[in-house]
Every structure is written in C-alpha cells, then in structure tokens.
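tmp note - Integrator complex subunit 4
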Amino acid sequence: MAAHLKKRVYEEFSKVVQIPHEEAPTKKLRLSKPSKSAALHIDLCKATNSTDALQYLLQFARKPVEAESVEGVIRILLEHYYKETDNSVRLKIASLLGLLSKTNGFSPDCIVDDVINTLGNEKSHQVLAQLLDTLLVIGTQLPESPAVRRRLVEMACKLLSDTYFGVRNKCLQLLGCVGMVDTPLAKDIEGPSSSLGGVREVQNIISNYFADQDPRVRTAALKAMLQLHERGMKIHQIIYEQ
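out:
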C-alpha cells in the first residue's frame, strides 16, 4: 500500500503543468514634442514673407519657454535676425531677446557678445533702441559682472552720437543703470565728451547731454544722473553746478 501511494505522489509531481502564455502588453510609443528652438526654427522656415514671420513670432511670444531652452531659442532668433530685411521683424526679434533674457533660471552672460554684435550693422534707429533696451535687461540681470557692465557702458557711449533721440535716451538709461562712477573709458569713443586726466568718465559723459537739443534727451540725462545717485554713487560737485 505504501509503495502504491508513493508511486501516485511521484506521478502527481512529475506531471508537466502548462500555464497558458499571456501576451505581453504592447509598449506604447510616446512621441516627444520638438524642442522650443526646433519648433521656432520650423515655423520661421515656413514663413514665405515678413508678415508670416512676424505672425509666427507673435504666436511664439505667447508661449512660456523653460530656462534650459532659452539659449537655443535665442540662437535661432539671432540666426533669423541676420537674414531678415524687414525692420518690423527685426524689431520684434530684438524685443523677444530682452523678454527671454528675463527668464527665471537663465543667465544671459552667454549671449552678451551676440547681442552686442547685432548693433554693429543695424541701420534702423528703432531696432537699435530696442537692442539697447535688451542690453539694459542683460546688464540688470548680471549686476556682479564688472566686465559685462564695462562692455555695455562702452557700447552705450559709442551710440550716443546717434541722430535718433530714442537711441540716445536708451544709451543714457543704460549708463545710469550699469555705469560705474570711477570707470575710465577710452578717449576714442565717439560723441561729445569732456576729458579729465586723459580719460573719460560716466558722469562727465551723461552731463554733456544736459544741454542736448532734444528736451527728451535732456530729461533722460537728468534721470540717468539721478539713477547713479540712487545707486549710492557720489556725484561730482561740478555736476550740481550744472
């Protein structure tokens, strides 16, 4: 009897149990969205004229951009800027450069050279003024970078001779916001100036525009000097006399 039970147990355990094979769930492919810079590039490439390009830029301006995507987007904008002949489109691009530079978590020090380079060949006074406004944004975002501030001051000084009051106003605003009282500047910077000891200095440059022919520029010069004062800088006695 014991031998018979042992045989039955052995047979039960030796049976092969077939478990029905369940089909593995199919993996669903998730298509990732193109990066902001890629999407912008595609849109601008689709534009057949300046009106289309401006429309795409206006649509893009309504969308948020993550900090990690800002530099790539700016590179695409600059690439199109150099190709664009329409002033209104370049003006919008210049405006977007300033807007993107304010993005939380993004440091605009990597685009300073690129934005400054755009000023070199720009002929539109309105676009120049907007680019200077972008540099103003960059300067206020990088208060701890003396090298950047110095470059911005020198660029503002070079463009102070522009015939358009809006450009002169932005230059003066830039000097007031990022200029440093004791920073000597090169003598060969264009525009009206006074020289002390062979160097030019921000306060002296600003004060030259107290007598500008345009009252809007005179106002901007006074506001720029006030900005220096509000930033804790000691104003020279001769400035008070003026």
